[in-house]
Amino acid sequence: MRRGLRFVPLALLAAVLLELVVFVVVGRAIGFGSALLAVFAASLLGLVLLRREGMRAWRGFKASAQAGQPPGRQVTDGLVGLLGALLLALPGLLSGLVGVSLLVPPVRRLARGGVQRAAERRVSSMVAGDLFGPRRVRVRRGAAEPADAPVAEPTVVVDGGRAIEGEIVEPGRN
């Protein structure tokens, strides 16, 4: 984790430079006043959407908690929506474009799946089961194994790292 953090300042510098280049290119194409107005309008829209997405995420989390369901889907969907609104609120045309794309439902579903997989890798299987609900994992029989190796059942169901109905558990897998 720490090894990746050392590149954050370099990545931020590259993002700022890329935003500047995009602004100059768009400014030359449509005029700098129009480009500045577009950046201002996108930032204002992002600020409005930040509040809306935050309230939406909170309501979804609260509803799933009251229904006794795992809140993971609502939490990850809310995080992706908040990230999209935050990127839209940041001044810049490129960050605004990425932010708007994260608010489009098909892209949002893809990003939500990525956030969920990343969260499942970073937390224990028990916590992942509590957040995202039970998983169904298919285990295929492969080549013959040595006689002392354990044999897996064809289907495994994981519920928070616990075996359901005496089946074999393979935590953290879909």
Could you name the key traits of this structure?
174 residues, mainly alpha, three-stranded antiparallel β-sheet, 7 helices, 67% helix, extended
Describe the structure.
With about 170 residues, the chain is mainly alpha-helical. It is built from seven helices and three strands, in the order H-H-H-H-H-H-H-E-E-E. It has helices at about 1-5, 10-30, 30-65, 70-90, 95-105, 105-120, 125-130; strands at about 135-140, 155-160, 160-165. Helix 2 (about 10-30) packs across helix 3 (about 30-65), helix 4 packs antiparallel against helix 5 (about 95-105) and helix 4 (about 70-90) packs across helix 6. The longest helix is centred in the N-terminal third of the chain and has 35 residues, at about 30-65. The model is unreliable at about 165-170 (pLDDT under 50).
Please provide a brief summary of the model.
This protein is mainly alpha-helical and 174 residues long. Helix content is 67%, strand content 6%. It has helices at residues 2-5, 8-30, 32-66, 72-89, 93-103, 105-122, 125-132, and strands at residues 135-138, 155-159, 162-163.
Shape: extended
Arrangement of strands in the largest sheet: 1-2-3
Q: Using DSSP, what is the number of strands?
A: 3
- Strand residue percentage: 5-15%
Low-confidence region ranges: 165-169
Topology, element by element:
Elements lengths: L1 H4 L2 H23 L1 H35 L5 H18 L3 H11 L1 H18 L2 H8 L2 E4 L16 E5 L2 E2 L11
Antiparallel strand pairs: 1-2, 2-3
Helix pairs in contact: 2-3, 3-4, 4-5, 4-6, 6-7
